[in-house]
Amino acid sequence: MSETVSESTKPSAGVVVEHLRAWNPKAVAEVIEFRGDTTIVVPRELLRGAAERCREDAALQFNLLSDTTCVDRFPLEPRFEMNYQLVSIPRRDRVCLRVRLAGKDPVVDSLIPVWPGANWLEREVFDLFGVRFTGHTDLRRILLPDDWEGYPLRRDYPVEGYRDVPSTGALFRKSTP
Amino acid sequence: MTTTVETATGAAKTMVLNMGPQHPSTHGVLRILLELDGETVVKAVPDLGYLHTGIEKSCEDKTYSQVITLTDRMDYLSPLGNNLVYCLAVEKLLGLEAPKRAQYIRILMVELQRISSHLVWLGTHAIDLGAMSVFLYCFREREEILKIFEMFSGQRMMTSYIRIGGIALEPPAGWRQAVERFLRMMPSRIDEYETLLTENRIWMGRTKGVGYISAEDAVALSMTGPTLRAAGIAYDNRKIFPYSSYEEFAFDVPTRTDSDCFGRYMIRVAEMRESLKIIRQAFDKISDEGPIKADAPGIVPPPREKMKTEMEALIYHFKIFTEGFSPAPGETFVTIESPRGELGCFVASDGSPKPLRVHFRAPSYINLQALPKLIVGQLIADVIACIGTIDIVLGEVDR
Q1: Number of domains present in the structure of chain B
Q2: Does a structural domain hold residue A104?
Q3: How far is A51 from chain B, CA to nearest CA, in Å?
Q4: Is A73 close to B356, i.e. CB distance below 8 A?
Q5: Has residue B389 been placed in a domain?
Q6: Cα(B168)–Cα(B110) distance, rounded to whole angstroms?
Q7: If I label B345, which of A164, B91, B143, B363 is the partner at 20 to 30 A Cα–Cα?
Q8: Which residues of chain B have pLDDT under 70?
Q9: How far apart are CA B269 and CA B197, in angstroms?
Q10: Contacts of residue B330 in chain A, CB cutoff 8 Å?
Q11: What domain range includes position B329?
Q12: pLDDT at position B346, please?
Protein backbone atom coordinates (compact mmCIF):
# COMPACT_ATOMS: atom_id res chain seq x y z
CA MET A 1 0.00 0.00 0.00
CA SER A 2 2.61 2.51 1.03
CA GLU A 3 4.80 1.78 -2.00
CA THR A 4 2.03 2.35 -4.52
CA VAL A 5 1.15 5.68 -2.97
CA SER A 6 4.67 6.99 -2.75
CA GLU A 7 5.34 5.90 -6.32
CA SER A 8 2.30 7.66 -7.64
CA THR A 9 2.54 10.88 -5.62
CA LYS A 10 6.22 11.70 -5.96
CA PRO A 11 6.97 11.88 -9.69
CA SER A 12 3.52 13.28 -10.44
CA ALA A 13 4.59 16.82 -9.59
CA GLY A 14 6.79 16.78 -12.65
CA VAL A 15 4.02 15.32 -14.78
CA VAL A 16 1.55 18.05 -13.87
CA VAL A 17 4.08 20.80 -14.49
CA GLU A 18 5.08 19.22 -17.79
CA HIS A 19 1.53 18.93 -19.05
CA LEU A 20 0.64 22.46 -18.02
CA ARG A 21 3.75 23.84 -19.73
CA ALA A 22 2.97 21.84 -22.86
CA TRP A 23 -0.49 23.43 -22.89
CA ASN A 24 0.78 26.97 -22.36
CA PRO A 25 4.42 27.83 -21.68
CA LYS A 26 3.35 30.62 -19.33
CA ALA A 27 0.96 28.46 -17.28
CA VAL A 28 3.47 27.61 -14.55
CA ALA A 29 4.87 30.70 -12.85
CA GLU A 30 6.49 28.86 -9.96
CA VAL A 31 6.64 25.39 -8.44
CA ILE A 32 6.82 25.14 -4.65
CA GLU A 33 7.80 21.88 -2.98
CA PHE A 34 7.20 21.81 0.74
CA ARG A 35 7.13 18.70 2.96
CA GLY A 36 6.35 16.49 -0.02
CA ASP A 37 3.45 18.61 -1.28
CA THR A 38 3.53 20.32 -4.63
CA THR A 39 2.05 23.74 -5.19
CA ILE A 40 1.92 25.17 -8.68
CA VAL A 41 1.55 28.91 -8.95
CA VAL A 42 -0.51 29.85 -11.98
CA PRO A 43 -0.97 33.37 -13.42
CA ARG A 44 -4.42 34.73 -12.69
CA GLU A 45 -5.55 34.96 -16.32
CA LEU A 46 -4.67 31.33 -16.98
CA LEU A 47 -6.33 29.78 -13.91
CA ARG A 48 -9.50 28.52 -15.55
CA GLY A 49 -7.60 27.15 -18.53
CA ALA A 50 -5.09 25.41 -16.29
CA ALA A 51 -7.89 23.97 -14.17
CA GLU A 52 -9.65 22.63 -17.25
CA ARG A 53 -6.39 21.13 -18.40
CA CYS A 54 -5.89 19.43 -15.02
CA ARG A 55 -9.34 17.93 -15.17
CA GLU A 56 -9.53 16.93 -18.84
CA ASP A 57 -5.99 15.78 -19.57
CA ALA A 58 -5.99 11.97 -19.64
CA ALA A 59 -2.62 11.92 -17.91
CA LEU A 60 -3.77 14.17 -15.04
CA GLN A 61 -7.49 13.45 -14.38
CA PHE A 62 -7.92 15.73 -11.39
CA ASN A 63 -11.63 15.05 -11.17
CA LEU A 64 -12.30 16.18 -7.57
CA LEU A 65 -11.91 19.71 -6.29
CA SER A 66 -11.18 18.93 -2.68
CA ASP A 67 -10.86 22.38 -1.21
CA THR A 68 -10.54 26.06 -2.00
CA THR A 69 -9.25 28.56 0.45
CA CYS A 70 -7.62 31.94 0.66
CA VAL A 71 -4.71 33.28 2.67
CA ASP A 72 -4.38 36.98 3.42
CA ARG A 73 -0.76 38.11 3.66
CA PHE A 74 -1.55 41.69 4.61
CA PRO A 75 0.44 44.01 4.60
CA LEU A 76 2.49 42.20 1.96
CA GLU A 77 1.57 42.42 -1.70
CA PRO A 78 0.24 40.54 -3.61
CA ARG A 79 -1.98 40.20 -0.64
CA PHE A 80 -4.30 37.26 -1.33
CA GLU A 81 -3.38 33.72 -2.23
CA MET A 82 -6.07 31.39 -3.52
CA ASN A 83 -5.26 27.72 -3.04
CA TYR A 84 -7.14 25.04 -4.96
CA GLN A 85 -6.56 21.51 -3.71
CA LEU A 86 -7.13 19.04 -6.53
CA VAL A 87 -7.47 15.29 -6.19
CA SER A 88 -7.29 12.69 -8.88
CA ILE A 89 -9.26 9.70 -7.64
CA PRO A 90 -8.20 7.35 -10.48
CA ARG A 91 -4.52 8.30 -10.18
CA ARG A 92 -4.46 8.66 -6.37
CA ASP A 93 -2.75 11.98 -6.58
CA ARG A 94 -2.99 15.48 -5.18
CA VAL A 95 -1.76 18.85 -6.28
CA CYS A 96 -2.37 22.41 -5.21
CA LEU A 97 -2.92 25.24 -7.69
CA ARG A 98 -2.24 28.69 -6.38
CA VAL A 99 -3.11 32.14 -7.70
CA ARG A 100 -1.80 35.36 -6.19
CA LEU A 101 -4.12 38.34 -6.15
CA ALA A 102 -3.37 41.98 -5.45
CA GLY A 103 -5.21 43.64 -2.56
CA LYS A 104 -6.60 46.37 -4.82
CA ASP A 105 -8.10 43.98 -7.32
CA PRO A 106 -9.00 40.64 -5.71
CA VAL A 107 -10.82 39.17 -8.69
CA VAL A 108 -10.33 35.77 -10.24
CA ASP A 109 -12.23 33.49 -12.62
CA SER A 110 -14.74 31.20 -11.01
CA LEU A 111 -14.08 27.49 -11.39
CA ILE A 112 -17.75 26.47 -11.39
CA PRO A 113 -17.64 25.60 -15.11
CA VAL A 114 -14.84 23.14 -14.37
CA TRP A 115 -16.01 21.73 -11.02
CA PRO A 116 -19.59 22.63 -10.02
CA GLY A 117 -18.56 21.91 -6.43
CA ALA A 118 -16.57 25.16 -6.44
CA ASN A 119 -19.84 27.02 -5.89
CA TRP A 120 -20.04 27.07 -2.09
CA LEU A 121 -16.28 27.01 -1.65
CA GLU A 122 -16.00 30.24 -3.62
CA ARG A 123 -18.99 31.76 -1.86
CA GLU A 124 -17.27 31.11 1.46
CA VAL A 125 -14.09 32.85 0.27
CA PHE A 126 -16.15 35.75 -1.08
CA ASP A 127 -18.02 36.00 2.21
CA LEU A 128 -14.99 35.98 4.49
CA PHE A 129 -12.25 37.54 2.34
CA GLY A 130 -14.07 39.63 -0.23
CA VAL A 131 -12.41 37.95 -3.19
CA ARG A 132 -14.68 38.17 -6.23
CA PHE A 133 -15.16 35.39 -8.75
CA THR A 134 -16.06 36.37 -12.29
CA GLY A 135 -18.56 34.02 -13.86
CA HIS A 136 -19.88 32.78 -10.51
CA THR A 137 -23.60 32.11 -10.87
CA ASP A 138 -24.66 32.89 -7.32
CA LEU A 139 -22.07 35.07 -5.57
CA ARG A 140 -23.82 35.83 -2.27
CA ARG A 141 -22.69 35.70 1.33
CA ILE A 142 -23.14 32.24 2.78
CA LEU A 143 -22.08 32.12 6.43
CA LEU A 144 -22.62 35.74 7.46
CA PRO A 145 -25.86 37.73 7.23
CA ASP A 146 -26.48 39.44 3.89
CA ASP A 147 -26.14 42.91 5.41
CA TRP A 148 -22.79 42.24 7.11
CA GLU A 149 -20.16 44.80 6.27
CA GLY A 150 -16.54 43.90 5.94
CA TYR A 151 -14.70 40.64 5.44
CA PRO A 152 -13.80 39.09 8.82
CA LEU A 153 -11.02 36.75 7.75
CA ARG A 154 -8.92 39.59 6.37
CA ARG A 155 -5.92 40.21 8.58
CA ASP A 156 -6.82 43.86 9.13
CA TYR A 157 -10.20 42.91 10.63
CA PRO A 158 -9.82 42.58 14.42
CA VAL A 159 -10.40 39.14 15.91
CA GLU A 160 -12.88 40.48 18.44
CA GLY A 161 -14.77 42.36 15.71
CA TYR A 162 -15.99 45.87 16.37
CA ARG A 163 -17.42 45.65 19.85
CA ASP A 164 -18.45 49.29 20.13
CA VAL A 165 -20.99 48.81 17.38
CA PRO A 166 -24.23 47.29 18.70
CA SER A 167 -25.13 45.38 15.56
CA THR A 168 -24.11 44.95 11.97
CA GLY A 169 -24.82 47.97 9.85
CA ALA A 170 -23.47 51.18 8.49
CA LEU A 171 -20.80 51.66 11.15
CA PHE A 172 -19.09 48.44 10.13
CA ARG A 173 -17.89 50.18 7.00
CA LYS A 174 -14.67 51.18 8.69
CA SER A 175 -13.45 47.61 8.29
CA THR A 176 -13.40 47.80 4.52
CA PRO A 177 -11.42 50.20 2.40
CA MET B 1 -29.75 35.39 5.11
CA THR B 2 -32.15 35.15 2.23
CA THR B 3 -35.77 35.78 3.06
CA THR B 4 -37.37 35.09 -0.29
CA VAL B 5 -36.76 32.65 -3.04
CA GLU B 6 -37.14 33.31 -6.74
CA THR B 7 -39.67 30.73 -7.76
CA ALA B 8 -38.91 28.56 -10.74
CA THR B 9 -42.44 28.21 -12.09
CA GLY B 10 -44.15 31.41 -11.01
CA ALA B 11 -45.92 32.11 -7.75
CA ALA B 12 -49.40 31.18 -8.95
CA LYS B 13 -48.74 27.48 -9.17
CA THR B 14 -46.31 26.82 -6.36
CA MET B 15 -45.86 27.79 -2.74
CA VAL B 16 -42.71 28.52 -0.78
CA LEU B 17 -42.27 26.74 2.52
CA ASN B 18 -39.69 27.68 5.07
CA MET B 19 -38.14 24.62 6.72
CA GLY B 20 -36.04 25.30 9.78
CA PRO B 21 -33.85 26.69 11.20
CA GLN B 22 -35.51 25.28 14.33
CA HIS B 23 -36.65 21.93 13.08
CA PRO B 24 -35.65 18.65 14.73
CA SER B 25 -34.99 16.83 11.49
CA THR B 26 -32.51 19.38 10.18
CA HIS B 27 -30.01 18.17 12.81
CA GLY B 28 -29.12 21.62 14.01
CA VAL B 29 -29.88 25.06 12.71
CA LEU B 30 -30.20 24.55 8.99
CA ARG B 31 -32.83 26.44 7.07
CA ILE B 32 -34.10 25.36 3.69
CA LEU B 33 -36.42 27.35 1.49
CA LEU B 34 -38.53 24.84 -0.38
CA GLU B 35 -40.62 25.68 -3.39
CA LEU B 36 -43.42 23.14 -3.54
CA ASP B 37 -45.82 22.03 -6.19
CA GLY B 38 -48.32 20.14 -4.10
CA GLU B 39 -46.02 17.90 -2.10
CA THR B 40 -43.25 17.77 -4.68
CA VAL B 41 -40.13 19.87 -4.26
CA VAL B 42 -39.47 22.07 -7.29
CA LYS B 43 -36.58 24.05 -5.90
CA ALA B 44 -34.57 24.05 -2.69
CA VAL B 45 -32.26 26.76 -1.39
CA PRO B 46 -30.29 25.92 1.78
CA ASP B 47 -29.54 28.85 4.03
CA LEU B 48 -26.77 28.43 6.57
CA GLY B 49 -24.62 30.40 8.93
CA TYR B 50 -26.84 30.30 12.01
CA LEU B 51 -24.07 28.57 13.94
CA HIS B 52 -21.13 30.47 12.50
CA THR B 53 -18.72 31.16 15.34
CA GLY B 54 -15.66 32.29 13.40
CA ILE B 55 -13.47 29.42 14.54
CA GLU B 56 -11.02 29.96 11.70
CA LYS B 57 -10.59 33.59 12.72
CA SER B 58 -10.16 32.71 16.39
CA CYS B 59 -7.41 30.24 15.44
CA GLU B 60 -5.31 33.09 14.09
CA ASP B 61 -5.13 34.64 17.54
CA LYS B 62 -4.04 31.51 19.39
CA THR B 63 -0.79 29.61 19.58
CA TYR B 64 -0.56 26.35 17.69
CA SER B 65 -1.26 24.24 20.78
CA GLN B 66 -4.23 26.33 21.90
CA VAL B 67 -6.06 25.81 18.62
CA ILE B 68 -6.66 22.12 19.45
CA THR B 69 -9.45 22.95 21.90
CA LEU B 70 -11.27 24.91 19.20
CA THR B 71 -11.12 22.04 16.72
CA ASP B 72 -13.13 19.86 19.13
CA ARG B 73 -16.05 22.18 18.79
CA MET B 74 -16.52 22.05 15.05
CA ASP B 75 -17.72 18.55 14.33
CA TYR B 76 -18.92 17.78 17.84
CA LEU B 77 -19.77 14.20 16.95
CA SER B 78 -16.19 13.51 15.94
CA PRO B 79 -13.90 15.75 17.99
CA LEU B 80 -11.02 13.27 17.89
CA GLY B 81 -11.01 13.33 14.11
CA ASN B 82 -10.77 17.11 14.18
CA ASN B 83 -7.93 16.97 16.71
CA LEU B 84 -6.15 14.45 14.54
CA VAL B 85 -6.34 16.35 11.27
CA TYR B 86 -5.15 19.57 12.87
CA CYS B 87 -2.29 17.87 14.69
CA LEU B 88 -1.24 16.05 11.53
CA ALA B 89 -1.19 19.34 9.63
CA VAL B 90 0.94 21.07 12.26
CA GLU B 91 3.22 18.05 12.57
CA LYS B 92 3.71 18.12 8.82
CA LEU B 93 4.50 21.81 9.03
CA LEU B 94 7.10 21.06 11.69
CA GLY B 95 8.44 17.94 9.98
CA LEU B 96 7.57 15.97 13.09
CA GLU B 97 6.16 12.48 13.44
CA ALA B 98 4.37 10.97 16.39
CA PRO B 99 5.81 7.71 17.78
CA LYS B 100 4.26 4.49 16.46
CA ARG B 101 2.57 3.70 19.73
CA ALA B 102 0.85 7.08 19.74
CA GLN B 103 -0.20 6.57 16.12
CA TYR B 104 -1.89 3.27 16.97
CA ILE B 105 -3.65 4.77 19.95
CA ARG B 106 -4.82 7.60 17.71
CA ILE B 107 -6.26 5.07 15.27
CA LEU B 108 -7.99 3.19 18.08
CA MET B 109 -9.62 6.39 19.30
CA VAL B 110 -10.56 7.71 15.89
CA GLU B 111 -12.18 4.43 14.88
CA LEU B 112 -14.16 4.28 18.11
CA GLN B 113 -15.20 7.80 17.28
CA ARG B 114 -16.31 6.74 13.82
CA ILE B 115 -18.58 4.09 15.32
CA SER B 116 -20.03 6.51 17.85
CA SER B 117 -20.64 9.10 15.15
CA HIS B 118 -22.34 6.55 12.89
CA LEU B 119 -24.46 5.47 15.85
CA VAL B 120 -25.72 8.99 16.38
CA TRP B 121 -26.35 9.23 12.67
CA LEU B 122 -28.25 5.94 12.58
CA GLY B 123 -30.30 6.73 15.67
CA THR B 124 -31.32 10.21 14.54
CA HIS B 125 -31.90 9.17 10.95
CA ALA B 126 -34.16 6.35 12.11
CA ILE B 127 -36.08 8.62 14.47
CA ASP B 128 -36.59 11.10 11.62
CA LEU B 129 -38.17 8.33 9.62
CA GLY B 130 -40.30 7.14 12.50
CA ALA B 131 -38.32 4.26 14.02
CA MET B 132 -38.10 5.30 17.64
CA SER B 133 -36.50 2.25 19.25
CA VAL B 134 -33.34 2.23 17.10
CA PHE B 135 -32.44 5.59 18.56
CA LEU B 136 -32.47 4.18 22.10
CA TYR B 137 -30.34 1.19 21.16
CA CYS B 138 -27.80 3.32 19.30
CA PHE B 139 -27.40 5.70 22.20
CA ARG B 140 -26.97 2.78 24.60
CA GLU B 141 -23.88 1.64 22.68
CA ARG B 142 -22.63 5.17 22.14
CA GLU B 143 -22.64 5.58 25.88
CA GLU B 144 -20.14 2.71 26.15
CA ILE B 145 -17.83 4.46 23.69
CA LEU B 146 -18.12 7.75 25.54
CA LYS B 147 -17.19 5.94 28.74
CA ILE B 148 -14.03 4.69 27.03
CA PHE B 149 -13.23 8.24 25.95
CA GLU B 150 -13.76 9.46 29.46
CA MET B 151 -11.39 6.79 30.71
CA PHE B 152 -8.68 7.82 28.25
CA SER B 153 -8.96 11.57 28.33
CA GLY B 154 -11.19 12.57 31.23
CA GLN B 155 -13.78 13.95 28.83
CA ARG B 156 -16.72 12.38 27.10
CA MET B 157 -16.97 14.68 24.13
CA MET B 158 -14.54 17.58 23.85
CA THR B 159 -11.57 15.36 24.48
CA SER B 160 -8.61 17.32 23.04
CA TYR B 161 -6.84 14.00 23.51
CA ILE B 162 -4.69 14.10 20.39
CA ARG B 163 -1.93 16.66 20.73
CA ILE B 164 0.85 17.95 18.51
CA GLY B 165 3.55 15.27 18.51
CA GLY B 166 1.50 12.53 20.14
CA ILE B 167 -1.36 12.13 22.58
CA ALA B 168 -2.16 13.84 25.86
CA LEU B 169 -2.06 10.98 28.33
CA GLU B 170 -0.85 7.44 28.78
CA PRO B 171 -3.75 4.97 28.30
CA PRO B 172 -5.33 4.40 31.72
CA ALA B 173 -5.16 1.20 33.73
CA GLY B 174 -7.92 -1.16 32.69
CA TRP B 175 -8.35 0.25 29.20
CA ARG B 176 -7.79 -3.16 27.62
CA GLN B 177 -10.68 -4.73 29.50
CA ALA B 178 -12.99 -1.86 28.56
CA VAL B 179 -12.12 -1.98 24.86
CA GLU B 180 -12.19 -5.77 24.83
CA ARG B 181 -15.67 -5.75 26.35
CA PHE B 182 -16.83 -3.30 23.73
CA LEU B 183 -15.30 -5.32 20.89
CA ARG B 184 -17.07 -8.46 22.10
CA MET B 185 -20.40 -6.74 22.54
CA MET B 186 -20.61 -4.60 19.43
CA PRO B 187 -20.93 -7.08 16.50
CA SER B 188 -24.13 -8.56 17.89
CA ARG B 189 -25.47 -5.07 18.57
CA ILE B 190 -24.92 -4.08 14.95
CA ASP B 191 -26.84 -7.23 13.98
CA GLU B 192 -29.62 -6.00 16.23
CA TYR B 193 -29.91 -2.69 14.37
CA GLU B 194 -29.92 -4.53 11.11
CA THR B 195 -32.69 -6.82 12.32
CA LEU B 196 -34.74 -3.77 13.16
CA LEU B 197 -34.11 -1.90 9.94
CA THR B 198 -32.50 -3.59 6.95
CA GLU B 199 -35.46 -5.73 5.89
CA ASN B 200 -38.10 -3.62 7.54
CA ARG B 201 -40.68 -2.78 4.89
CA ILE B 202 -41.32 0.73 6.14
CA TRP B 203 -37.61 1.47 6.29
CA MET B 204 -37.10 0.14 2.78
CA GLY B 205 -40.07 2.11 1.52
CA ARG B 206 -38.76 5.31 3.02
CA THR B 207 -35.15 4.92 1.86
CA LYS B 208 -34.95 2.81 -1.31
CA GLY B 209 -34.74 4.92 -4.44
CA VAL B 210 -34.88 8.12 -2.38
CA GLY B 211 -32.22 10.78 -2.84
CA TYR B 212 -30.42 9.29 -5.80
CA ILE B 213 -27.28 10.99 -7.09
CA SER B 214 -25.12 9.70 -9.91
CA ALA B 215 -21.41 9.05 -9.40
CA GLU B 216 -20.50 11.79 -11.90
CA ASP B 217 -22.62 14.37 -10.11
CA ALA B 218 -21.28 13.34 -6.73
CA VAL B 219 -17.66 13.80 -7.84
CA ALA B 220 -18.44 17.04 -9.68
CA LEU B 221 -20.02 18.43 -6.51
CA SER B 222 -16.94 17.39 -4.48
CA MET B 223 -18.90 14.94 -2.33
CA THR B 224 -16.83 12.53 -0.27
CA GLY B 225 -17.34 9.91 2.40
CA PRO B 226 -20.12 7.31 2.60
CA THR B 227 -22.23 9.25 0.10
CA LEU B 228 -19.58 8.97 -2.57
CA ARG B 229 -18.85 5.35 -1.73
CA ALA B 230 -22.55 4.51 -2.02
CA ALA B 231 -22.31 5.86 -5.57
CA GLY B 232 -19.69 3.25 -6.37
CA ILE B 233 -16.45 5.20 -5.98
CA ALA B 234 -14.05 3.66 -3.47
CA TYR B 235 -12.52 6.93 -2.34
CA ASP B 236 -11.32 6.62 1.22
CA ASN B 237 -8.38 8.65 2.49
CA ARG B 238 -7.35 5.84 4.81
CA LYS B 239 -6.58 3.70 1.76
CA ILE B 240 -5.67 6.23 -0.91
CA PHE B 241 -3.59 8.69 1.12
CA PRO B 242 -2.82 6.73 4.30
CA TYR B 243 -1.95 8.72 7.42
CA SER B 244 -1.07 7.72 10.96
CA SER B 245 0.06 4.22 9.84
CA TYR B 246 -3.28 3.18 8.29
CA GLU B 247 -1.27 1.39 5.60
CA GLU B 248 -0.42 -1.30 8.18
CA PHE B 249 -4.06 -2.16 8.81
CA ALA B 250 -6.16 -4.64 6.86
CA PHE B 251 -9.70 -3.48 6.18
CA ASP B 252 -12.09 -3.11 3.27
CA VAL B 253 -13.71 -0.02 1.85
CA PRO B 254 -17.37 -0.95 1.35
CA THR B 255 -18.97 0.41 -1.81
CA ARG B 256 -22.37 0.07 -3.41
CA THR B 257 -23.90 1.24 -6.62
CA ASP B 258 -27.49 2.07 -5.66
CA SER B 259 -26.53 5.54 -4.36
CA ASP B 260 -29.81 6.14 -2.52
CA CYS B 261 -30.61 6.60 1.15
CA PHE B 262 -30.76 2.85 1.65
CA GLY B 263 -27.34 2.37 0.04
CA ARG B 264 -25.80 4.99 2.30
CA TYR B 265 -27.35 3.29 5.32
CA MET B 266 -25.84 -0.04 4.28
CA ILE B 267 -22.44 1.59 3.71
CA ARG B 268 -22.37 3.12 7.17
CA VAL B 269 -23.40 -0.12 8.83
CA ALA B 270 -20.66 -1.94 6.91
CA GLU B 271 -18.19 0.77 7.94
CA MET B 272 -18.97 0.18 11.59
CA ARG B 273 -18.01 -3.46 11.13
CA GLU B 274 -14.81 -2.47 9.32
CA SER B 275 -13.98 -0.07 12.13
CA LEU B 276 -14.31 -2.93 14.60
CA LYS B 277 -11.71 -4.85 12.58
CA ILE B 278 -9.36 -1.87 12.69
CA ILE B 279 -9.90 -1.40 16.43
CA ARG B 280 -9.08 -5.07 17.02
CA GLN B 281 -5.83 -4.72 15.05
CA ALA B 282 -4.89 -1.49 16.80
CA PHE B 283 -5.67 -3.15 20.12
CA ASP B 284 -3.15 -5.88 19.32
CA LYS B 285 -0.54 -3.47 17.96
CA ILE B 286 -0.49 -1.11 20.93
CA SER B 287 2.34 -2.18 23.18
CA ASP B 288 2.16 -1.69 26.93
CA GLU B 289 5.29 0.40 27.04
CA GLY B 290 6.78 3.01 24.79
CA PRO B 291 6.67 6.72 24.15
CA ILE B 292 3.37 8.46 23.45
CA LYS B 293 4.93 11.79 22.57
CA ALA B 294 7.58 12.69 20.03
CA ASP B 295 10.97 13.71 21.33
CA ALA B 296 10.81 17.34 20.28
CA PRO B 297 11.93 19.77 22.98
CA GLY B 298 10.31 23.14 22.59
CA ILE B 299 7.26 21.70 20.85
CA VAL B 300 6.05 18.82 22.98
CA PRO B 301 5.74 19.68 26.69
CA PRO B 302 8.25 17.74 28.81
CA PRO B 303 7.05 15.17 31.37
CA ARG B 304 6.36 16.44 34.86
CA GLU B 305 9.21 14.45 36.47
CA LYS B 306 11.78 15.95 34.10
CA MET B 307 10.62 19.45 34.90
CA LYS B 308 11.40 18.87 38.53
CA THR B 309 14.95 17.68 37.88
CA GLU B 310 16.15 19.37 34.70
CA MET B 311 16.34 23.10 34.17
CA GLU B 312 16.08 22.86 30.35
CA ALA B 313 12.81 20.97 30.67
CA LEU B 314 11.43 23.69 32.93
CA ILE B 315 12.50 26.39 30.48
CA TYR B 316 10.91 24.58 27.54
CA HIS B 317 7.73 24.08 29.48
CA PHE B 318 7.57 27.76 30.31
CA LYS B 319 8.28 28.81 26.73
CA ILE B 320 5.72 26.43 25.19
CA PHE B 321 2.94 27.74 27.39
CA THR B 322 3.84 31.42 27.26
CA GLU B 323 4.91 32.13 23.71
CA GLY B 324 4.44 28.79 21.90
CA PHE B 325 6.67 27.60 19.10
CA SER B 326 7.30 28.99 15.63
CA PRO B 327 7.25 26.60 12.68
CA ALA B 328 9.14 27.55 9.52
CA PRO B 329 7.09 29.56 7.00
CA GLY B 330 5.07 27.39 4.66
CA GLU B 331 1.66 25.87 4.07
CA THR B 332 0.45 22.33 4.52
CA PHE B 333 -2.80 20.64 3.64
CA VAL B 334 -3.64 17.32 5.26
CA THR B 335 -6.74 15.21 4.82
CA ILE B 336 -8.19 12.36 6.83
CA GLU B 337 -11.32 10.27 6.48
CA SER B 338 -13.75 11.57 9.06
CA PRO B 339 -17.07 9.75 9.57
CA ARG B 340 -18.61 12.29 7.20
CA GLY B 341 -16.03 12.31 4.44
CA GLU B 342 -12.75 13.93 3.61
CA LEU B 343 -11.83 16.25 6.46
CA GLY B 344 -8.98 18.53 5.49
CA CYS B 345 -6.90 21.02 7.38
CA PHE B 346 -4.91 23.79 5.77
CA VAL B 347 -2.37 25.51 8.00
CA ALA B 348 -0.23 28.41 6.85
CA SER B 349 2.66 29.66 8.94
CA ASP B 350 4.50 32.94 8.55
CA GLY B 351 7.18 31.96 11.04
CA SER B 352 5.44 33.44 14.08
CA PRO B 353 4.06 31.48 17.07
CA LYS B 354 0.49 31.94 15.85
CA PRO B 355 -0.84 30.45 12.63
CA LEU B 356 -1.33 32.84 9.74
CA ARG B 357 -4.34 30.89 8.59
CA VAL B 358 -6.12 27.72 9.64
CA HIS B 359 -8.80 26.42 7.35
CA PHE B 360 -10.88 23.28 7.60
CA ARG B 361 -12.25 21.50 4.61
CA ALA B 362 -15.49 20.55 6.27
CA PRO B 363 -17.08 17.50 4.63
CA SER B 364 -20.54 18.37 5.99
CA TYR B 365 -20.42 21.79 4.38
CA ILE B 366 -19.37 20.49 1.00
CA ASN B 367 -21.71 17.51 1.00
CA LEU B 368 -24.61 19.74 1.95
CA GLN B 369 -24.09 21.59 -1.30
CA ALA B 370 -25.53 18.59 -3.13
CA LEU B 371 -28.76 18.62 -1.09
CA PRO B 372 -30.85 20.45 -3.75
CA LYS B 373 -29.68 17.88 -6.27
CA LEU B 374 -30.91 15.07 -4.00
CA ILE B 375 -34.30 16.49 -3.13
CA VAL B 376 -35.61 18.25 -6.22
CA GLY B 377 -38.44 16.15 -7.61
CA GLN B 378 -38.91 14.26 -4.35
CA LEU B 379 -41.75 14.49 -1.88
CA ILE B 380 -41.45 16.74 1.13
CA ALA B 381 -41.29 13.74 3.48
CA ASP B 382 -38.23 12.53 1.58
CA VAL B 383 -36.45 15.83 2.21
CA ILE B 384 -36.04 14.70 5.80
CA ALA B 385 -34.61 11.36 4.71
CA CYS B 386 -32.17 13.15 2.40
CA ILE B 387 -30.94 15.60 5.04
CA GLY B 388 -30.36 12.69 7.39
CA THR B 389 -28.60 10.60 4.82
CA ILE B 390 -25.82 13.05 4.03
CA ASP B 391 -25.04 13.19 7.76
CA ILE B 392 -24.40 16.84 8.43
CA VAL B 393 -23.20 18.37 11.66
CA LEU B 394 -24.06 22.04 11.66
CA GLY B 395 -21.19 22.90 13.95
CA GLU B 396 -18.90 21.82 11.17
CA VAL B 397 -20.96 23.29 8.34
CA ASP B 398 -20.90 26.78 9.82
CA ARG B 399 -17.67 26.65 11.82
Answers
A1: 1
A2: yes
A3: 13
A4: yes
A5: no
A6: 14
A7: B143
A8: 1-12
A9: 11
A10: 34-35
A11: 55-361
A12: 94
